[in-house]
Structure prediction request, 460 residues.
Amino acid sequence: MIDPDSIGTISRIPRFSGVSQQALTWLAEQLSRRSYAKGAMLFLEGEDSSHLWLVESGAVKVFRSLESGRELILGIFRFGDAIGEVAVIDGTGYPASASAHEDATVWVMPRQAYFTYLERFEGTAIALIRDLTLRMRVMQRRMEDLGGGGVEYRIARVLQALCAKSPDQPGPVYLPIPLTRQDLADMVGARIETVIRIMSRWQKDGLIGQDDRGLCVRDRRAMAQLAGGS
Amino acid sequence: MIDPDSIGTISRIPRFSGVSQQALTWLAEQLSRRSYAKGAMLFLEGEDSSHLWLVESGAVKVFRSLESGRELILGIFRFGDAIGEVAVIDGTGYPASASAHEDATVWVMPRQAYFTYLERFEGTAIALIRDLTLRMRVMQRRMEDLGGGGVEYRIARVLQALCAKSPDQPGPVYLPIPLTRQDLADMVGARIETVIRIMSRWQKDGLIGQDDRGLCVRDRRAMAQLAGGS
DNA sequence: CGGCTGGTTGATTTTAGTCAAGTGCAGTGG
DNA sequence: CCACTGCACTTGACTAAAATCAACCAGCCG
Prediction:
């Protein structure tokens, strides 16, 4: 039943990096691994929040279909990120849907096992609180982006945020996630044509670039300018 | 030093309603009460997050001045709401500023006392987790509002949310908080003139009304229509 | 009486959405 | 191999929405 390598893999998930060997062994029995092909749904909004999801590889998109007809991407999650935590904790259904943005493998943890985990092992509740507060900061930032100004400003902020993890190196910074124009549009609450027009201009001006390695920001200073002072 | 009535007042704050008499007594020693006149600042973004704030009466506006020049209201908090929790927990400075939206009295709790409180008394960490998840849901909703569509849709959503607590009664529903047009504009990320034009039209169409008791929604069905299906 | 705040209106410009058409490419099945 | 499909991307013309700029009004308060 238990993949003999499970413990090793699980211990590499940041969320569980600090826990005891005993907790890891217990976790390995509770978690199961699943793989999803690009585009496959992990869960739908409103569905009963039966599981906590932890991304091991690939990328998972969490989004919400709005009454206005649009789709708003709430976040794209990668290695180590937890999904569905809020829903699992408060027991109401998932507040959004999730699908595999690229081929992805995830660990799933049943709701009850998660509660047991929080109760039984020391320090896990604190880790959860820290994680939640961190995510609230991220959400606040995104609220600011969405409410902040024009579409140009909002796209610049998103690209800025995606590049933020990379060290301040010279040369182009490639985005860690493949994003289509439609994805960007869904992230900033705009139409695809608007996004294309803005990005075409940026490309012409040498601000960004695109090749087989993906999308990149060529002029971080100018991008920061757009995201900051307009 | 301790207001003899403190314990009684504190026990009425929902956040502390379930705690033991012992914890209440301890809290009464840690908390101090402050009053702020309308417009006065409680704290500034970036300031060291030294205290947790609990609103007892009045209203406190939490907002952020964006690089784009706008001011985005992140929330307006009333009786029982906690402010600054995220900042206190993760120890980085306040991520936003707060001022008294109306004359307000608040309880302040030093950072260290808050940690002691979480450690010493049973169940408080769980209560915190529940509160955080609840607030993440609220934030997600606001993100959807901001990214969702036009200004009309966004204003409708805000009014809708403010009326949501009131029971589904016939007749006008007055907003629980006095809001100027500018406040609304800062909540939805729009200009004051745009807000005025939309609301003037609504007023003409009998959707909303305004009198000495404040702003009210007269036709909740139509408002829900705007917030839902456009 | 000023000065201040909040609300309001109109004219104009800018921005973004909408509609329609079309390109380039990768994969698929005949 | 080639037609065919689907997908991401692109462009142009046009319309609608919102921002901007500039006044102006009413009430309130010292």
About this structure: The longest strand of chain B covers residues 51-57.
